[in-house]
Task: inverse folding
């Protein structure tokens, strides 16, 4: 199933936790913020949502 991955740049602090925890490399840091560059690879595991202390990431089934 496809997922929509959204990072709120106003909340993201660029800690790289989501980059480290994602098993399929959805994220990379650009200009100090996390960007979902490979959202089509998302498995919907929501590990990124769980590690994000800023609550900047949402993963929604589409």
Result:
């Amino acid at each position: 199933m496809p997922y929509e991955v959204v990072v709120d740049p106003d909340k993201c602090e660029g800690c790289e936790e989501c980059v480290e925890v994602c098993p399929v490399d959805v994220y990379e840091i650009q200009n100090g913020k996390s960007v979902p560059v490979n959202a089509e690879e998302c498995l919907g595991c929501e590990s990124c949502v769980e590690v994000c202390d800023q609550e900047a990431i949402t993963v929604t089934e589409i």
